[in-house]
Amino acid sequence: MTDRLPTTGSTSAGPAGDPTRLRVRALRWEADDVLAVTLDHPGGSPLPPWRPGAHVDLHLDDRSDADAVVRSYSLCGRPGLAEWTVAVRLDPASRGGSRHVHERLRVGQSITVTGPRQLFGLDPAPAYLFVAGGIGITPLLPMIEEVVAAGRPWRLLYAGRSLAAMPFRDRLAGHPDRVQVFPAQEGARLDLTAAVPAALAGLAGEALVYCCGPERMLTDVAALVPPDRLRCERFRPRPVVPDADTPDATGDFEVELGEGGPVLPVPAATPLLDVLLAAGRDVPWSCREGTCGSCETGVLAGVPEHRDSVLTPAEQAAGDVLFPCVSRALTPRLTLDL
């Protein structure tokens, strides 16, 4: 057992990698309405390595236009295996992603997958508190297992609708002294205001807090933990609150494709990503909500107006990358590294 955790660097999105065709090797129910999908290479070739917090994009149809069904999911298996596993909860309001996985994916089927890429890396720390809401346990599972292997102190607060709806409890069963489970329908609702300070008090040093779950959970945890010690991942884009002290970023602007490259108009009602794709630029994308990080693009000049839920405030202030699916401009022109 080692007492060192590898350094992950920035938690912002990295290169998404080339699309590849993988095989659905197994489908398994992990909880009510939660289906685990295990993928491998049909020829037995090894898959690219990944670290806890990594994501892959599943291309759930054969389209390549703006209506293609591409969804990003956390890898929740064990790094080093010749397979990748994601878990998908069926969303009653599904726009085609989770419903496709649950109703149409079958063992033996081929599917295009892009990745892995790192969005939510595990940074070195003396101790860790993990806070999960429902399917939010998926990116935290590999982190917990890496922390266990490193011999670091940790705790998990895991909330869900019911025990039957909370996936991967079997992988946590060996740590009853470190895991607190809160199934609301069984009368064990998680009180974050009490539980987070209590858990942190039992951890030595400046513990990092990793949280993944619904927006209300993330908001409540953010009110209890200093920003420099909190790492969050969202299911939905966080609300964008306009800043009264900055120019209006909802109108028209221009985008320059590389220094000295073509200059294109970006109308007020048109996403920047659509303009880039129409110009033939090969920008990967998935969620179109600023949450998955697939379309990260470098900024060479101009000031972007960030509307993503990926970058930290410090990374947004640096202004050297944006996510064109949601970002706009605070200056008349942006020059992008394309």
Automatic annotation (TrEMBL):
Residues 1-13 have a biased composition (Polar residues). One of its GO terms (molecular function) is metal ion binding. CDD domains: fer2, PDR_like. Its cofactor is FAD. Residues 17-123 form the FAD-binding FR-type domain. Residues 1-20 are annotated as: Disordered. It comes from Nakamurella flava. Signal peptide: none annotated. InterPro entries: 2Fe-2S_ferredoxin-like_sf, 2Fe-2S_ferredoxin-type, 2Fe2S_fd_BS, Beta-grasp_dom_sf, FAD-bd_FR_type, FNR_nucleotide-bd, MRET, OxRdtase_FAD/NAD-bd. The keyword Metal-binding applies. The keyword Iron-sulfur applies. The lineage of its organism: Bacteria, Bacillati, Actinomycetota, Actinomycetes, Nakamurellales. Residues 253-338 form the 2Fe-2S ferredoxin-type domain. Keywords: 2Fe-2S, Flavoprotein, Iron, Iron-sulfur, Metal-binding, Oxidoreductase. It holds the Pfam family Fer2. This is Oxidoreductase. SUPFAM superfamilies: 2Fe-2S ferredoxin-like (SSF54292), Ferredoxin reductase-like, C-terminal NADP-linked domain (SSF52343), Riboflavin synthase domain-like (SSF63380).
